[in-house]
Write a structure and sequence with these properties.
Elements: H1 8-17, H2 29-51, H3 59-80, H4 85-88, H5 118-132, H6 147-168, H7 172-186, E1 210-220, E2 223-230, E3 233-234, H8 253-263, H9 267-273, H10 281-286, H11 290-308, H12 321-330, H13 341-361, E4 363-369, E5 374-378
Antiparallel strand pairs: 1-2, 1-4, 2-3, 4-5
Helix pairs in contact: 1-3, 2-3, 2-5, 3-6, 3-7, 5-6, 8-13
Amino acid sequence: MDGSTLSLNEYQDLAVTTDRTRIKGGNLSLPILGLFGETGSLLSEVKKKQRDAKAYDSYESGVIEEFGDALWYLAVIAAHANIRLEDIAAEYRTRSGEPLRFVNLQPQRSLNLAAPTTEFARTLLKLANSVGNLANDDGEAISSLDPVALGGRLKIIFHNLIHAATEAGVTLGEAAVHNIKKAQDRWPTDRILPPLFDLDFPPEEQLPRQLEIQIFERMSGSKQYVYQRCNGVNIGDRLTDNSVVEDFYRFHDAFHYAYAAILGWSPVTRALLKLKRKSKTKVDDGEDGARAIILEEGVAAYVFARAKEHDFFDGREEVDFNLLKTVRSFVQGFESERCPLWLWEEAILKGNAAYRFLRQHRRGRLILDLDKRDMIVQELAP
């Protein structure tokens, strides 16, 4: 996908495939709230950069992402009202009968992402004001049943968005491509599993495609310890919470096994099963070594802390998008960064489901199936 050739209608069609805001009856409140939020986030990016010019180093990636998100909501609002994005941008059309492309909206070669100026901040406030016109004085969103009024207001918003992007040095085509890739990363049209990371390694260095791990709790003196067995052999050290307040972190290895089963990635599981990929020194050291193990433990600890705030995602089918992006940033530079966000979400939810079971029953069998990218938890008889 290339921002220089992508047309506005093509982008809108792609955006609609990841639209989860549609509400029965044509109510536009949710996507309009989303556009409010993204416009506010753009203003926030500018504020942070102007306030902490040298310290705030994520401005460039942040501002491109926020422009893309604002564009997505604009495209989705128009789609709800059966308005084509090209019609909103009709003033930028130079040739009739040809698709209107993002490259036609702005000067391309002269744009260079720059620090926000006072003029840019003023333009963003104009954008925010035009977005505010999508709601009336009573806080009600404009109805899609009035496409003429809605279309006119969307045209003004789109014009201000283009103007703001140009002043910021952002090409909307680049922001659109980034946005679609991000949305497909989380909510793809087709969920295609990536290949397992150890496919090209000898069988003795591959994670078992089917595996059963028995996890159970035993008293030793005055302490509760968790033990793990695989194929009748104890693996790893006996575990405690390592915490002043009991939080059952001793069962957190369920997270690691979920990463192994769903992502095909877990340096911790490889270490427990003695399956490091030693036939390739760089992989052995870089992907399966101590640093990778510490990294995975950090991911598990972070996910545990966030999940704890939400009853370990009991009854949930999704996790927070920001959590997923943070986890992705944790593993940047390692092979698991190639796992799509939707697969990370599956792994996190499966790991938490197993953890909840183990916390309740204090024992269980984890059945890993790497071929199906799945893990289930079953009762373990005393």
